[in-house]
Amino acid sequence: MNDFSELERELRKLRPAQPSPFLSERVGEALEDSRRSAAADPTSSWWRFKEATRNWWSLGFGLAAAAILILFAAVTMERRHEHQQTVAQSSPAPETQPVPLGTERSISPSRFVPAGGSNVVYNTRDEGLHFADGSERPVRRVRYNTRQTWRWHNPETGASLRVSYPSEEIVLIPVSGQ
Amino acid sequence: MEPIASHENWRNCFSEVAPGLLLFARQWVQSAADAEDIVQDAFVKFWRRKHDIDNRGLLYAAVRSLALDFIRRDARRARREATVLAETEPVIEPHFELEDDTQSALAAAVESLPRDQREVLVLKIWNDLTFSEIAGALGISQNTAASRYRYALTNLKKTLQPQ
User: Fold this and answer.
1) pLDDT by residue (tens digit) across B52-98?
2) What structural domains does chain B harbor?
3) Are A138 and A175 spatial neighbours (Cβ–Cβ below 8 Å)?
4) Any bridge partners for residue A171, and if so which?
């Protein structure tokens, strides 16, 4: 193996030419200019203003939307309550008979009934052909990314419950040669 | 070495790196004035973005990128550079402050190296970059940088051997 340490020492003794004395001054001026232009740049300050106002507008719209939703929910609940009171007033007097325990449970205010569900596929990926479990017939594997949402509704109180979660489904589609 | 960009006095930092940077820039442009313009632009960009010493390779990458842009931008100048290169002896000349004949011979040997080897040599010897930093600055692998350096030294040794 070659030993280059002596050569490296000699090379380090060579000193590169110094830059002109004006270069340092020019760099100083350029740095100062860039600092000044960054501080006084009307486009950058306008951009900052725009960003700030955009954020405030977003916040305002968000709050307004939330307030409208709350009002809507409150009005809906109020109407439902009034409707239930009207039905109660117009219906005949209930018979005074003992209610079985099971029935009592079924009309309990904590009872929720399924109100629907949805399964939204937001991504599909074709993973090509595979041979599943040593099978000689190829299958095409398709992966679905979905978001499933289930809703329950309590008819007594008007409350609703919604559960949403992501899920992944792999479907194997047999491929036949022609 | 202190972090370049966090150093309050940019002048100290600049005076420390400027000769090496200038030598590096002159790998592509003949004119010292053009090389100084490139070094100035690269250093101002580097300083404004507050890069630290860990990213020192970026400063050299910026010099290289600006030098290549400069050549591409000014085709007429590039042709003139090419004409000068064709007319004069070896390729682009790094400039050294020479003290004696031994150093002149050594400088001439460096100048006769292929450009890819000379680039690495300039960054390693006169800019104290590690092979990792050289690899980052030149967009090559660390092994390539190390082997180019080894080739450069081998070639220099051959050139300087008494016949």
Assistant:
1) 656 788 889 999 999 888 888 766 665 665 666 555 554 445 578 88
2) 10-160 (1.10.10.10)
3) yes
4) A142
Exposure letters A125-154 (e unless 16+ CB within 10 A, then b): eeeeeeeeeeeeebbebeeeebeeeeebbb
Query: Residues B114-134: pLDDT tens digits?
Result: 989 999 999 999 999 999 999
d(C-alpha A70, C-alpha A81), whole Å: 16
Residue A28 corresponds to which amino acid?
G
pTM equals 0.53
Q: Report how far apart, in Å, the C-alpha atoms of A51 and of each of A36, A45, A153, B107 are.
A: 22, 10, 42, 56
Which residue of A4, A20, A27, A32 to mutate against B (max B Cβ within 10 Å)? A27
If you search the block for the tokens 């860990």, which residue do you land on?
B54
Q: Which residues of chain A have pLDDT under 50?
A: 88, 90-91, 93-106
Place of tokens 């400069």: B70
Helix (H) or strand (E) holding B101: helix B101-111
How far does CA A167 lie from the centroid of its chain? 14
**Residues of chain B found within 8 Å of residue A13, distances taken between Cβ atoms:** 103
| Interface list for A 16-55 with B (CB within 8 A) | 16-20, 23-24, 26-28, 30-31, 34
Among A174, A16, A160, A167, smallest CA distance to A76 is for A160
In our burial notation (b when 16+ CB lie closer than 10 A, e otherwise), range B85-123 reads eeeeeeebbbbbebeeeebeebbebbbebeebbbbbbbb
Q: What pLDDT is attached to residue A109?
A: 58
Query: Does B10 sit within 8 Å of A27, measured CB to CB?
Result: yes
